[in-house]
Amino acid sequence: MPHPALHLAVEIDGDGAHPAAWRRAAHEPGALLTPRRTARVAAVAENSGFTLVTLDDGILPPGPAASGGPAGRIGAVERAAYIAASTSVLGVAPVVATTYAEPFHVSTRIASLDHVSVGRAGWVLAVEDAPEAARAWGRPAVEGAAALRREAVDGLTVSRDLWDSWEDDAVVRSVATSRYLDGSRLHYVDFVGETYRVKGPAIVPRPPQGRPVVLAPASLVPPELVDVALVDGPSPALLGRAAAASGAPLAFAELEVALDTPEETAAERIADLERYASWDTAPGRPPERLRYTGPAAGLVALLEELSAVVDGVRLHPLVLDEDLSVLSRLVLPELFGRRLAARPLPGTTLRTTLGLPRPDSRFATAAASATLTREGHR
After folding, report:
1. Shortest CA distance to 215 belongs to which of 124, 92, 148, 149?
2. Angle CA 250–350–320, to nearest 5
3. What is the mean pLDDT of residues 216-242?
4. What distance in Å separates the CA atoms of residue 342 and residue 336, rounded to the nearest whole number?
5. Cβ atoms within 10 A of the Cβ of 367, count?
C-alpha cells in the first residue's frame, strides 16, 4: 500500500540550525539581514517544491553572544510578508509568541499576511520563556510551564475569534449605497482571560483562509485549536507515537539534517562547526529531536519511513547555503519522482495544499443556528 504524500517544510531563519552556521555561509556577513538574501532563500525553497517555509523569531538575539554569531534579526512577520509578495505557491509561516505580545496585534499581523499572500499564511505558535524576554518587553515575567501554556492558549483563542469576528460576506463594497461593509456581520469577541480581556472586532476583514494555518509544538495548546502539531522524537517509531497522541488534524516531525556535499561529508562539516559551538546546545533545541547526517539517499529512505507515521516533516538544515542545495538537487526530486511528497499547486491556499477544510466563522455558524432555532419554533 503506498504511503501518503509528505508535506515538506523547511526552517530558513538565519544561516542554518547550527549556532555557528554563519561561519560556512556563502554570503558576506552583512548580507544576512537584507531583502535579497531573504528572497533568494525563499525562491530556492519554492522552486525546490517545499510546501512551506518557517521563520524563527524572538525578541532576544538569535544566538548566544559567545558564539560570535548574528546579534539580531529582522522580524519574522516582516520577512514573511516580503517573501509572500515575491513568491506564488510557497506557504509562509512566521514564528510568533503571544507570551508578552498583544494578541490583538498578533492576530492582525497574521491576518494581514494571509491577505498579502492570498491565502498562503501560517503561524508557528511559540512562547518566550527567558526572563530576559520579559525585561525586553517591559512586562512582568510569565514564569512556569502552566503560565506559559495559559498565555499561549489565551493568545491563540483570541486570535481565532478575531479572525472569525468578520463574517466572510461582511465586506459589501456597495457603490450605490456608499457602504463598504455590513455592520451586522461584525461581531465582538468579548474575551476575558486571567491576565487581559479583548473586546474586538478585528480591524481587518476575515483572512482568505478563514483562519491561517496554525502550527504549534504538540501539547503546548489543546489540539482542537491547532491545524498542525510539531512533534519531536529520537526515532521514527517514537515520532509516530507522538504524532498519534497529538490529537491534531496533522502532525509534522521535526528533523535536523546535515547532508554530504560534493566537497565534504556531513560528519566533516559538523566537526568543522563544532570547534566553535555545539549543535546539541543550540538555543531552544529539544534534546530528543531526530537528526540525520549522511548522504542524500539515506535521507530519502528516512523520509519514506516517516511518511508512514506523520503527515509532514519540518527540516532544520545544518547550513542553509550548503544543505538547501543538496535538498533541492538530490532529495526533493527523488521524493516527487517516487510520489512520496507532493508540490503545492498554483492558485491554492495553504489549507488546500495541506488538505485542511476552510472553517466557517463561529459567529456566523452561531447566528445560523439561532435562526434555524427561531424558525423551528414558529
Report:
1. 124
2. 85
3. 96
4. 6
5. 15
In the prediction, which pLDDT does 372 show? 44
Nearest to 300 by CA among 2, 6, 1: 6
Task: Report which secondary-structure segment, H or E, holds 251.
Answer: strand 250-259
pLDDT tens digits, one per residue of 61-75: 887 655 667 778 899
Q: Work out whether strand 191-192 and strand 197-198 pair parallel, antiparallel, or are unpaired.
A: antiparallel
- pLDDT of the residue at 344: 95
Residue type, 359: P
Model confidence at 377, in pLDDT bands (50, 70, 90)?
low
- Would you call 259 helix, strand, or coil by DSSP? strand
Give the per-residue pLDDT at 57: 94
DSSP 8-state symbol, 328? I
Amino acid at 369: S
What's the chain's length in residues? 378
Segment 181-194 mean pLDDT: 89
DSSP track, 79-129: HHHHHHHH-SS-EEEEEEE-SSS-HHHHHHHHHHHHHHHTS-BEEEEE---
* CA distances from residue 257 to 16, 84, 155, 220, 250 in whole angstroms, order as listed: 10, 25, 32, 25, 22
Give residue 205's identity as a one-letter amino acid code. Answer: P
C-alpha cell of 218?
A: 504538540
Task: Show the cell assigned to 275.
Answer: 570547534
Cis preceding-peptide flag for 201 (omega within 30 of 0): yes
**Phi, psi dihedral angles at 84 (to 5 degrees):** -60, -35
The average confidence (pLDDT) of the chain is 91
| All domains in the chain, ordered by first residue | 7-166+202-376 (3.20.20.30)
Helix and strand element counts for the chain (H, E): 12, 13
pLDDT for 1 equals 47
